[in-house]
Amino acid sequence: MESAGEYDYIIIGAGTSGCVLANRLTRNKDVDVLLIEAGGRDDYVWIHIPVGYLHCIGNPRTDWLFKTEAEAGLGGRSLIYPRGKVLGGSSSINGMIYMRGQAADYDRWAEVAGDPSWRWDQVLPLFKRSEDYYGGASEVHGVGGEWRVERQRLSWQILDAFRDAAQEVGIPKIGDLNAGGGAGSAYFEVNQRRGIRLNTARAFLKPAAQRPNLTIMTGCHVERLLVEDGPQGKVCRGVQFSGGGRAYTATAHRETLLAAGAIGSPQILQLSGIGAAANLHGQGIAPVAELPGVGENLQDHLQLRMIFRISGAPTLNMRTANWFGKLRIGLEYALFQSGPMSMAPSQLGVFARSGRGMTEAPDLQFHVQPLSLDKFGEPLHRFPAFTASVCNLQPTSRGHVRIASNDSHAAPKITPNYLSTEADRKTAAAALGLTRRIVAAPALARYRPEEYLPGPAYQTEEELAQAAGLIGTTIFHPVGTCRMGRADDPQAVVDSRLRVRGIANLRVVDASIMPFITSGNTNSPTIMIAEKAAEDLLKGG
């Protein structure tokens, strides 16, 4: 086993948070950083064309190809569980939607972490720091940062009508989905630059890669952390990994930063003997530190995809129905970087209340699309239709991620436990009912919408909850598996500074630290987490 060198910091994972950490830490010329990534370079053309997510998800070049265990709440179905395996991580294959969540999300984090620095008013400047907002600087938006936020480059008549219908049932039109909360509808803003996907590798890592104090190793698979007994307890000294048929160790003089995501980070911790002792013993791993929360508290947004056939309005289904339509779409993108090939997977966002929440904050999010298909990766339907996907923003169901063996190359067992609580089943039924009320509003009547999925046969609350299990699928927002919390929280894996409990010189910096899932898409909140961690590290915190 050869040495890959000694560094001040080692970052495991060049995904969303890893790229930000590498950029921020190497601004200090006196700091040497090693960034280790299992995937390859982000030079695959489909990464950068927005519609290319269709070619990246399920592709071993860019995706870990995870699947969930069979889910009882989904009728025994197993779901694909895409996670980016490439520079930029999941920001290279995701929906590009810029979404922060609600102010109440971060105030709740601050309360459970016992640290007011996680409050909305304290993290808002971190969002603004990395942001380059098309609309200019304001109290809630920043300019000049690496993370470009733009309007989408097309519109659809049927989506305008859905927005009008939502207003008719009491959901107002608003101008900004990222000001901290409130029910309303608006078109999603996206992380693109003139119709081209912006991933964190291009935004943050590319400029940092020119600095002599950053070493990037791709195609390298982390096997375990190197934890030793120190004078005052356990200490992480670095990492063991392999790549190109060679075995390596690397040493971190200051800290090792685990940024492998909500699936990868708990997996690496468990492989290193950090987790629930009973689970580790079961896989033949000697426990190094008893942290029962590692891999627990998995949360995700389950989207319920309702499809409605329509008439009298164009949808993407019909624009791709023949070779001429596809040729026109290709030319539109080649010449102007606009049209359907510049589309994010979802265009219209609607935040609403199910009527079941205990607060005034919206607890439902709609992703509305001018297209329909039976399931991801299959052809679009040959009839005009739109899809209204709705998810419970704050599910009470909790799952887990656990290693399946002591082989670091074996995929972990991912068990989200969707719809495993009565509260989530009732909210799912209410969400489907609200969708039907919107679609029945006068603004959509001229398009004569007919429910195609799940179908009008489901009417009672019990039937609608059953339908939710039949049509529900992940929207790819796993978080929470190394949750942040107070010292007296037995399930907390990291403290409010993201330091792993009981092991010096080791932090987790990614979406796994979220104690509660954010109310919306999770990519940009992960950037904020990395900004905050980097700030703490550079200040010596």
Structure in words:
The structure is a single chain. This protein has 541 residues and is an alpha/beta fold. The chain folds into 2 domains: 336 residues, FAD/NAD(P)-binding domain, CATH 3.50.50; 174 residues, 2-Layer Sandwich (Cholesterol Oxidase, domain 2). The protein is 26% helix and 22% strand. The protein contains 14 helices and 25 strands. Strands 1, 2, 10, 11, 12, 13, 24 and 25 form an 8-stranded mixed sheet that branches. Strands 7, 16, 17, 18, 19, 22 and 23 form a 7-stranded antiparallel sheet that branches. It has a two-stranded antiparallel ribbon with strand order 3-4. Helix 1 links the parallel strand 1 and strand 2. Helix 5 packs across helix 14 and helix 12 packs across helix 13. The longest helix is centred in the C-terminal third of the chain and has 18 residues. 55% of the residues are buried.
Give the integer mean of the pLDDT values: 96
Number of individual domains? 2
Q: Shape, please?
A: globular
Computed CA radius of gyration, to the nearest angstrom: 23 Å
Key features?
FAD/NAD(P)-binding domain, 541 residues, Cholesterol Oxidase, domain 2, 8-stranded mixed beta sheet, alpha/beta, 26% helix, 7-stranded antiparallel beta sheet, 2 domains
In short:
This protein is α/β, with parallel strands linked by helices. Helices cover 26% and strands 22% of the residues.
